[in-house]
Every structure is written in C-alpha cells, then in structure tokens.
Amino acid sequence: MPEGQAPRPATDDLDGAQKRRAESDAADRVLVTKAQAGDRDALGELLHKHGPGLYRSVLLPRLGSEAAAKEALSETYAKVVANVGKFVWQNVGFYPWLRTVALRVALDQLRAKKRLVLFEEDDLAREVDAAQTATPVEQQVSDHRDREAARAKVEEALARINPRYARAIRLRVLDEKPRDEVAAELGVTPATFDVLLHRAIASLKKALGERGESSEKHDE
Amino acid sequence: MSDRESRPPRGPSAPIGSASERDELDAPPTAEEALAAARLRDALEDPSAAAGGAADALELVASLRAAWSPGALDPGAHAEMLDDLPTSEEELALAAELREALDGAGARPEIVVALRAAHRPTPLADVEHRALVDRALALAGPREDAAPAGGSVVALRPRARTMRLAVVSATTVLALAASVVVWLTTAGPHDAAPLARARSTQPLFGAPFKPGEASARIDRIAMARASDYRDNRFAKWGVR
C-alpha cells in the first residue's frame, strides 16, 4: 500500500454509521409520509422497526412486568395511530417522538397503578421532560442509554440494603446462579441461604417502600 | 536525701492539681514506670502483642474509645448475626416459597420480576408484537384518502343514473346535517389541548434588577418559557 494511504478504520466506522443512520432516517421519513397519508402498511412497518427496542429498553425496565409493558406498548401504538398525522418531521427521526409517547404512557400507568417498581413517578417525569431534547437520534444509542439507566436504578436500590443481602440478590436473582452455588459462595448452607435470600428480598421491599413514602411526604 | 525522696507519697486524699501532684507529674520516671510505659506504647501500636499490665491498660483504652466515639458495626458481621437468628416456621415457609418460585415452580414476587426486568429485560416475542401492531392498526380503520396501492379494490356494480343521483343527494343532505350538528356541539375550543400563549418578556425588565438578582430572574424567565414551549410541543404532538 502506498505511503499516506493507510486505512483509517475509526473514521471509516464513523462514516459508515452516519451513512447507515442517514439511510434509516430517509427510509423512516418515506414511511412517515405514507403513514400520514393513510398507508397502514407503512405505519405498521415503522412500528415493527422501532417497537421491540422500545419495549425492551424503555417500557419493560420502567414498568417492571411484562404484562404492564405490553399494555403500555399497546396503548402507545394506539396513540401513535391516532396522532401520527400531527407528527412533524424535524430531522431527528421518528424514534425520539415514539419514545416520548411511550414514556408519557408509562408515566400515566405508574400514576394509575401503585405497584412496587424500581422507577418512581418523579424519575419518569424527569425523563419525559428531557425526552424531547436529550433522546439520541439513533435508536441503538438511545436503547443503550436507557438500559444503562435501568441498571443504575437496580444498583441504586441494592445500595439501600445490607451489602450481604445485596450480594445474595445479585447472585441468585440477577445473575440467576444456582442456589447451591450461591450458598457456597456466601459460605452458608443452602437451607440458610433460602432464609437469607428471603430476608434480603423483604429488606429491599421495605427500603423501596420507605423511599416511596418519603417522596410522597416530600410532595405534600 | 533529696527533696523528692523526703516527700511523702500522695495519698488518696491529696487534692487534684495540688502542689504535690504537680511535683509528681514532673518527676522523672522510675525504671519500672519506663518499662510499663514502653509496654503500653507497643500495645497501642500493636494490640495483639499486649501482655500483662499493658493488656489491662488496653481494655481501659478500648472502653474509653467505645464511649467517646463508638465505631460502626461491620455490615457483613451484622448480616451474619442476622443469619444466625432463629427462624420462625412462617419465615421458613416463605423462604421455601421463594426458592420454588425462583426455580420456576410458582409465581415470582413482584419485586423479583421488577429487578429482572430492569437488569436484563427479555425481548418481546415476534408473534406477540405482530399481534399488538395489528390490533393498533385495526383501530385506525380504513381512511378515505388512503392510497389505493396495496389495498383490495371492490368494483361497484353499475347502477341507474337516477339511483346514483338519489344516493348522492341523500348523502349530501345527511353530510350537511351532520356537519351542522358537529359544529353546534363542538363549537368553541377544539379537542386538542390548549396552547400556552406567547408572551413578551419586555414588561419583566421594566423594574431595575437588585444587585445579584439578574441571573436568577433571567433563569426563572427562561425556565418558564422552556416549560411553555415543551407543553406546546407535546400538545401539538397530541401526547399531552
């Protein structure tokens, strides 16, 4: 290879990513235009493209159960169908708008149903406020950030309880290691571990409950 | 005989801070005292090496420290103590229930489900997602201005001119009547959420700023305007 013509992989990757994003945006824009003209297939294609990521990165971690997340996704789609005509293309793609709609649906659901979840109303309200300006244009980047935020929320919750309890939950519930293996790792018998984990879960529930109560008092 | 040797030792009744006590504090240590002092110093540096009188002194030091600034209990040690607590029958039953649920033999507690959903969310099955999309699109219904491409077109059978005229006339009359009803019932504000009105900031700058207040006031104005702007965007998107 002649001197001065060495490959620049990092730049090439960046260029490639930008090119892919531009192509994806262009395709989305065509689909949005068709959907706004009443083409249901185009709208369906948009939802098929962005919906699974929205469910996995935004709705499920924030609502804490598959049933709740599916209900929220269904409601998000109903709102999208009803309001796609009002959407104005602003060169940031379709996903940020879809994510904003989903976050608002999730916030309404959290307000309506008082369930024990890691995310609180205030967390979602802040995310909704930031959604319009802070959602990355590219869904992959946005998904990554949303997943990181959810994991940080898990760590935040575990930091509220005894480290030994947190370790038990981390190993058995999050890493899904076998019971006997976790018991050995913690230096207790499996039967003692059962009780330890039960107490750990009870302690976490109490900590999350106290957090909810303190934020309610703060609101008052 | 020196002055010190001739002085009687201070008894229990010797007053604190008296001249005799001050003399004792300033007196050079005896060989025995020097040895005991060295032992105490070493014991404070390394409590495991304490022996004899130094060990007694260390106990006193520990009790003084515990009263003055008690240290926190090591969380691990505390948890181990809790593990050793006697377990009630009810707790054993709950622990067994949790174990079975985690092994997949029962309903998992809400908190476990929420933790896993946040930590490692599972993807939605393709079939389920397709069903959700289809249901949403079915709600939309066919639109009159939809592009015919891709949709099935059913040809109408030829009808008599008079029949078509009658249908067109009747439809027109009905449409007019319906539009009047709609206009009467929905006159006034639309179903869309009201928008915040644009306001000039000029009147807010009429009064002079107090020293140090300029930034805070401008920040408040900017926050209020940003909030209005955001609300309007959500309203226009139909998601408010």
Q: Total domains of chain A, how many?
A: 2
pLDDT averaged over residues of chain A? 84
The fourth-level CATH homologous superfamily of the largest domain in chain A is RNA polymerase sigma factor, region 2, helix turn helix motif
Number of helices of chain A: 9
Instruction: Supply the helix-strand structural class of chain B.
Output: mainly alpha
**Roughly what percent helix of chain B?**
55-70%
The largest inter-chain interface, given as chain pair and residues per side, is: A-B, 74 and 60 residues
Biggest sheet descriptor of chain B: none
The number of E-state strands of chain B comes to 0
Secondary-structure element pattern of chain B, one letter each = HHHHHHHHHH
Report helical residue fraction of chain A: over 70%
Largest sheet of chain A: none
Order of helices and strands of chain A: HHHHHHHHH
- The low-confidence parts of chain B are 1-14, 144-158
Strand content of chain A: under 5%
Instruction: State the end-to-end distance of chain A.
Output: 71 Å
Outline the low-pLDDT stretches of chain A. 1-5
Outline of chain B, from the CA principal axes?
elongated
What structural class do helix, strand and pairing data of chain A support? Answer: mainly alpha
Structure description:
The complex is a heterodimer of chains A (220) and B (240). Chain A is mostly helical and 220 residues long. Chain A is built from nine helices and no strands. Chain A folds into two domains: 14-136, Orthogonal Bundle (Rna Polymerase Sigma Factor, Chain: A), CATH 1.10.1740; 159-220, Winged helix-like DNA-binding domain superfamily/Winged helix DNA-binding domain (Arc Repressor Mutant, subunit A, Orthogonal Bundle), CATH 1.10.10.10. Helix content of chain A is 78%, strand content 0%. Residues 1-5 of chain A have low confidence and may be disordered. In chain B, 59% of the residues lie in helices and 0% in strands. At the A-B interface, helix 2, helix 3, helix 4, helix 6 and helix 7 of A face helix 5, helix 6, helix 7, helix 8 and helix 10 of B.
